[in-house]
Amino acid sequence: MKTSSSNQTLWKRTVVLGSVCVLSASLVAFTSAKDAAKPALHIQLNEAPLSASAHGFPSFAPVVKAVSPSVVKVAVSSKAKVSQMQMPEGFDLRRFFGPGFQMPEEFQQQGRHQRQQHMPREQGVGSGVIVTTDGYIMTNNHVVDGADIIKVNLTDGREFDGKVIGRDPKTDVAVIKVEATGLPAITFADSDKIEVGDMVLAVGHPFGIGQTVTTGIISAKGRATLGLDYEDFIQTDAAINPGNSGGALVDVEGRLIGMNTAILSRSGGNQGIGFAVPTNLARWVMESIVNHGHVERGFLGVNIQDLTPQLAKQFKMDGAKGALVSAVTPGSPADKAGVKSGDVITDFNGKAVTDSRHLKLQVGSTMPGAAVPMNVLRDGKSMSLSVTVKELPGDKVASAAPVSNDNEDALHGVGVSDLDKATREQLKLPSHIKGALISSVEEDSAAYEAGLREGDVILEINRQPVNDAEQATALCAKPETKVSLVKVWSHGGTRYVVVDESKAG
Q1: Which of 223, 279, 392, 432 is 20 to 30 A (C-alpha) from 289?
Q2: Does the pLDDT value for residue 21 go beyond 60?
Q3: Which first-to-last residue range defines the signal peptide (predicted)?
Q4: pLDDT for 262
């Protein structure tokens, strides 16, 4: 390591999300005093595991007859966007009326009105699932996002006006309501109990041609493919096409296990890879929207990252399951519970933690104010802690810090310098962050291959705090081994990397 005297600043895939609309970046919920006073949802629930005798049905007709009345067509319409009046390229009225000329407002308004009169409304078709007998319907956020007119069509020919109760872009779940009673509500299953290989049926309105039923199996569980904040998709090979979004994925007993959401396709049509939001996640979001007017998510106050085999070895773990804590927010629930940077969270609220994404899901779906048990591994020893989860503040999340795809890291070829006021302001470093700024990284070094970059800040080397460039250089001068554990601040968060000098070159 060298100290400098100055600071320096696979696959192509197409995801088709139903028929309309783009995901928003923030939670939107529509409530009123009347809505807030409504009683809690009363949904039908059957959590028993799927019976082995349910397999091998000679016909699914009885299941389809039971389920199809609960799946509706959701037709949406929105106003076309009107732009300002366009002149031919290079045409400027100021050439005739002078540089201070402005188009009269009444003329602009008239032009906008005329264009709006001639512009067709944007139309779209999706699907939905009736979840209560009094008119609550679950669908995808991207189906109703931006819609000002919603029509809900039942299989018996009835049509209702739909009202958006709330939507959650972070999971792509939305709830709409129709004014009706005695509707055919679907029965929910426990989606945690499904297994890969179980047979399923997808029911919806693809391309708006009418209700359609397809069949397949559960291909995988726990998929994260669309870049949403909270993903835990069921993958199926049952044919899903545009318009199926918001429809039902049911087991062979007719119980809802998921809400069809997206497909992975190079052609835009079904190619045997479809995704559905599992009912346990969709139900939690739906009930939170209806009962509270917004989604109440739990907040732990940690930066977390996945474990690699190299990191697992450094933290004295036999396997690479769990979520590695790279930073703890001061005063957060995790801080008060005694969680430390370098801990590996292995269990949360009685469930094993497989990786950072699953921990994020588990924390997010925990009711704020709940005191839950948590197991962490610290220096190879298991510890039991209790944490009182708070509500997620603003857009903050128990987020997964970005991790380099390369697992072999080193500090050879890295130049460092001290942090000064200007650099802190440029990098937006919190006042409590101390360390050595990486001013250069040789491209042929193991450090560069590992993902260390100019502008990162080294916080620790082999769990020894780094306050400045001189200390970082000293800690690297005579390493006991060629493998080091380095903690860095990068892109607004902290992360650990394993530095393996034996991999250099």
Answers
A1: 223
A2: no
A3: 1-33
A4: 86
Encoded tokens for 45: 């629930």
Q: Do domains 298-391 and 404-503 have the same CATH topology?
A: yes
Whether 179 and 110 have beta carbons less than 8 Å apart is answered as: no
Q: Output the six-digit token pair for 360.
A: 């994020």
pTM value? 0.64
For 273-331, the pLDDT digits (tens) are: 899 999 999 999 999 999 888 888 999 999 899 888 888 888 888 878 899 998 898 88
Q: Is 245 annotated as a binding residue?
A: yes
CA-nearest of 403, 402, 404, 417 to 471 is 417
Tell me the C-alpha distance between 285 and 68, whole Å.
23
Is 172 one of the annotated binding-site residues? yes
Give me the torsion for CA of 231, 176, 18, 254, rounded to 10°. 80
Q: Using an 8 Å Cβ cutoff, are 395 and 418 in contact? A: no
Does residue 142 have an active-site annotation? yes
Q: Which CATH number fits domain 298-391: 2.30.42.10, 1.10.275.10, 3.90.1310.10, 3.30.413.10?
A: 2.30.42.10
| Planar angle of CA 37, 38, 42, nearest 5 degrees | 150
Q: Does the pLDDT of residue 375 top 90, yes or no?
A: yes
pLDDT tens sequence across 36-91: 455 677 888 888 876 655 555 678 999 999 999 999 999 999 876 544 444 444 44
Task: Check the CA dihedral 301-302-303-308 and report its sign.
Answer: negative
In sequence order, the 6+-apart residues with CB closer than 8 A to the CB of 385 are 337, 338, 339, 373, 374, 375, 376
Catalytic member of 245, 288, 356, 484: 245
Question: Of 233, 238, 342, 311, nearest to 277 (Cα)?
Answer: 233
Fold of 28-49+62-76+124-292: Thrombin, subunit H (2.40.10)
Ligand-binding site membership of 243 (annotated): yes
Q: Is 412 a catalytic residue?
A: no
Higher per-residue pLDDT: 251 or 6: 251
Cα–Cα distance between 151 and 75 in angstroms, integer?
Answer: 5
Report the distance separating Cα 127 and Cα 242, nearest Å: 10
Catalytic site residue 306?
no
Query: What pLDDT, in 10s, does the model give residues 147-188?
Result: 889 999 999 999 999 999 999 999 999 999 999 999 999 999
The one catalytic residue among 19, 68, 145, 172: 172
**Domain ranges for the chain:** 28-49+62-76+124-292, 298-391, 404-503
Residue 111 binned pLDDT confidence (cut-offs 50, 70, 90): low
CATH architecture for the domain at 404-503: Roll (2.30)
The first and second tokens of residue 82, run together, are: 């009107």
